[in-house]
Design a protein that fits this description.
The protein has 14 helices and 20 strands. By secondary structure, it is α/β, with parallel strands linked by helices. Among the domains are: about 220 residues, FAD/NAD(P)-binding domain (3-Layer(bba) Sandwich), CATH 3.50.50; about 50 residues. Helix 4 packs across helix 5. The longest helix is centred in the C-terminal third of the chain and has 40 residues.
Length: about 475
């Protein structure tokens, strides 16, 4: 890489708070690992070096240290979606468990909630045991309601949580002010099952642990196409008994799962003085979510910055939500892409016959980060080693124990002669892209409409609610 290119890349990375902090401490962190050098083989190749991919590699090597595990990342570790997120680790988004209960029953919802609560603790345990300096801090999560319908949603969520064994407490405005002093709060819901972590330090720390255990990690290795037991990259072909696709890698040709791209924006302030935090009453590591159809998520970092994420116009709500914040400088602003399963639900699966496994996020995963990806990584590891564990029976899992999942379109295409398949694949891809663009625009408009109706009229828009609770909705 030329010096000019290196400087340009470093400047781009420093727009992201987590990278700016890391590079201030260790300028050498900008130097990527070498790419793949020609064709190779592995027992398992994980495509995507984000948190899900690295958690998967970590738990595979924990289950069987003799495995030859290779992680390939298209760019730099920590420069993808996981490293651009806020760094929160929670035990589930409001309403997500209710959706699981509707589809899979109360027992499945209880099991998933318990697994996610455990995942928050597991992240903290791994960070401590492996001595990963990821600035992990428990802080809990407080969800704020500033409209009547939002109050109703929180009350329903608290009632559901009690049936599942979740620790979720409904707060009146005075008690909510003890967690965070925000404007116009009618009620809040509080759970201790949440933490915050520096996502880039976590990703890079996990990569070092994977390598120390004998795994291999290649950066700047772009996957061009996947097939059963093979990944074709720009640097060579990897043949493996199992191919795992995570995050953005699911958009690669041959993927067994259809995914959508989403985009949010993140901003971070300079460190705030003690008087500002005293006015806000927000403890370090605590996550705040304003309950809306287009939510705003905030977190106080371990070094006393405020980090916020949401759609670009949603971030404009920060001053009205936290009027005591004052005119503190916003130092970092960056885009954070998300890759989600087309249906809007997180899914983890494996097809043992094809040697393919996958994990795709859902629409509700935006601020669940390290915990939800930790659980996904453990599920994948258990599926791949054939473990008959409770994790492989969670409602996320597409298929039964041993990975007998339904083959996706990418797997099915491999049984069709390539020349005849291409036109159909192209037509399907174009049709799907148009469908997804239109559906995404309709859902976004419905969410904006629903929030406006709730704010101005104090009621839920029935029409918007129907659009938002269809496939992929709440």
């Amino acid at each position: 890489m030329h010096d000019h290119d290196a400087r340009t890349t470093t400047d781009a990375l420093r727009r992201v708070l987590w990278w700016d902090l890391l590079l201030a401490d260790d300028p050498a962190a900008a130097t990527p690992r070498p790419p793949l050098d020609g064709d190779t083989t592995a027992d398992v190749v994980v495509v995507g070096g984000g948190l899900t991919g690295l958690w998967t590699a970590y738990y595979l090597l924990e289950a069987d240290p003799a495995l030859d595990v290779l992680v390939v990342e298209a760019g730099r570790l920590g420069a993808g979606a996981a490293g651009l997120a806020t760094g929160t680790a929670t035990a589930g988004a409001a309403g997500a468990a209710a959706a699981v209960a509707r589809e899979h029953g109360d027992r499945a919802a209880r099991d998933l909630s318990a697994a996610l609560r455990d995942a928050v603790v597991e992240v903290g345990g791994v960070v401590a045991a492996e001595e990963v300096d990821a600035r992990f801090a428990y802080g809990g999560l407080v969800r704020l309601a500033r409209t009547g319908p939002a109050v109703d949603r929180l009350a329903a969520a608290v009632a559901d949580a009690a049936r599942r064994g979740d620790d979720l407490e409904l707060l009146d405005p005075v008690a909510a002010g003890d967690r965070v002093r925000a404007d116009g709060v009618l009620a809040a819901a509080w759970t201790p099952d949440a933490a915050h972590v520096d996502p880039v330090r976590l990703i890079r720390g996990l990569a070092h642990v994977v390598e120390a255990r004998g795994g291999r990690v290649a950066e700047r290795t772009q996957a061009l196409r996947v097939a059963p037991r093979a990944v074709v990259t720009a640097q060579g072909t990897v043949r493996a008994r199992q191919v795992v696709l995570t995050g953005g890698a699911l958009a690669v040709a041959g993927s067994p799962l259809a995914v959508l791209r989403r985009r949010t924006q993140v901003l971070a302030t300079d460190p705030l003085p003690p008087r500002a935090w005293a006015a806000l009453a927000l403890r370090a590591g605590t996550t705040v979510v304003e309950d809306r159809h287009r939510p705003l998520t905030l977190v106080r970092t371990s070094d006393d910055r405020l980090v916020a994420t949401g759609a670009e116009d949603v971030l404009e709500r920060v001053p009205s939500l936290l009027p005591d914040l004052g005119p503190h400088a916003v130092r970092h602003v960056w885009d954070a892409p998300l890759t989600v399963a087309r249906g809007g639900r997180r899914t983890v699966g494996a097809d043992a016959r094809a040697g393919l496994a996958w994990s795709a996020g859902g629409d509700r995963d935006a601020h669940e980060g390290a915990a939800v990806t930790n659980l996904a990584g453990r599920v994948l590891a258990d599926l791949l080693v054939g473990a008959d564990s409770p994790l492989v029976r969670l409602p996320w899992v597409d298929g039964a124990v041993g990975g007998r999942a339904r083959p996706g379109r990418g797997v099915a295409r491999d049984t069709v002669p390539a020349v005849r398949a291409v036109p159909a694949v192209v037509r399907g891809t174009v049709r799907d892209a148009v469908h997804d663009t239109v559906l995404g625009a309709v859902r976004d408009a419905a969410a904006v409409w629903a929030d406006r109706v709730e704010e101005r009229r104090g009621r839920t828009s029935v029409a918007a609610a129907r659009l938002l609770t269809g496939p992929g909705g709440a």
